[in-house]
Amino acid sequence: MSAKLGIAIARRLGASCVSLVFVVVAVFFITSALPGDVAQSLLGQAATPDAVTALRHNLRLDEPVLLRFANWADGLLHGDFGMSLVSHQSVMSMVHERLLHSLVLAGITTLFAVPTALLLGTFSAIFRNTVFDRCMSVLTLCVVSVPEFLVATLAVLVFAVQLHLLPALASISDIHSIGSFLAAFSMPVTTLGCVIMGQMARMTRAVMVNVLSSSWVEMAVLKGVSPTAIILRHVLPNVVAPLFNVMALSLSYLLGGVVIVESVFHYPGIASLMVDSVASRDIPLVQSCALIFCAAYLLLTTLADVVSLFSAQERSRA
Amino acid sequence: MILALPPLRCLPPFLQAPALLAMLWLLLALIGPWIAPCLPGEVVSSTVFAPMSARHLLGTDYLGRDVLTRLLYGVSSTVLLCAASTAMACGAGAFLGMMAALKRGMTDTLLSRFMDGVISIPSLLSGLVAVATFGSSIPVLVLAMACIYLPGSYRTCRMLALSIVQKDFILAARMRGEKTGYLVLREILPNMAGPVLTDVGLRFIYAVRLLSNLSFLGVGLQPPQTDLGSLTQENLLGLVYGAPAVIAPALAIALLTVGLNLALDGKGRRQ
Q1: A102, A238, B194, B212 — which has fewest CB within 10 A?
Q2: What pLDDT does residue A24 have?
């Protein structure tokens, strides 16, 4: 690894850290900018002024905002995410198990959706301007344009209601066998997969078309190299870096998809926890969930950039 | 429409189809509530999830209300709210982007860093945080969406303006001693109008997606107001019966977003 590459990666990581700090500050100050008072809205209209004052004191809302931020950020550094206003449990204990569920869902979906999307995109690029490509193009455009919940609703309608292939609702709490595991995860995973595959297939196609129409591929075709050899020997080594980028960027679409899919299927993940906490305006819980999501998103985009820096280096050496 | 057609012809050809489509939706959104056959909150039938009939063209919903009426109101709020926030986001984004490209230096660096920070928060997440803090009223939703889509518009406009600012005619205008306002309005903006309008169209689609998703989750527009997302969500049970109450709003969202996107995408292939 050359010094130049090291500096480039360090700069990228530094930029991500700055973004993370920005996100932490933004999330805190936006959620603290509530006009009126959290204590008042928690206790409702009938609260006596004394009760409101007492609760404000308990929640430390009577302290200046900068001091509250310092306390909160200090807590974050020590893994203390605060207390939920509604359930009075520590946020950490509420988030812990939910996060695990969400990671399982995201992991399984990635394993199944990424290879499928890459294959679909590659085939569209190889057979470009055929009927297959046109159909794929319109289909993926539809998937990326409509809101995620529409894809989810349609998937339930097709796979569960019409075809009776998959169970529409299943609980992940009673998983004993492979059968019940499949039953619980098939529908959310299929739906989430549909949501992210559209974007990924489109971007893969764009990358592949770009390479396939380059002069060196034309040269190989003119030399009479077989199509399989062109794809495997000439094209593939050149698309690894951009494809990694495509993958990480599309996986960040997972986040948006996860929120919808978990809510539609009542999947007990962190996204549905966040939606519930938004509905009940449980600010500490909203803050923590938002931070976790932003951190995950930053991690994925940073990873994509670092990988593409690495492979750009490899290519310039080759 | 006659009034609208002449400016349409002034647009570059690849933008005429999307612009016409957008105008039709806007027209429907403006006159929808006036031509609705019933009142949106009125229970007009004792059958729920009724199929299409002559009396209720799109049947009835889960409470026995007229679906066509509610759909017209839903289209109206979805299109108008998203158009308002897109206009705010892209107006401010274009202005700041052009300013950054013209001034460069500290202004550019600070603005760009800030926008990069905002863009690193996924849109649905910012929407949820905004609603959790300020509640889900119409001004909050519009302003939140405007803030969410501002950085993207800023980036696009800054990139476009940067390539224009280096051209000789800008240099000539600067030598003539033209003011910044003249440069922005008469020299830069007309030369990047095409790509900027395409960007506006895409941001509008994003806004429709975000608002519908929020409303579907129950944290967007609150009853008695409706939009296409909440209409789909409240009639979701009708999916089993294939009721038009759920199919109509879902189809309307698809027509709105996919139609506009196809129209915008078509120009890319022809160019």
Answers
A1: B194
A2: 87
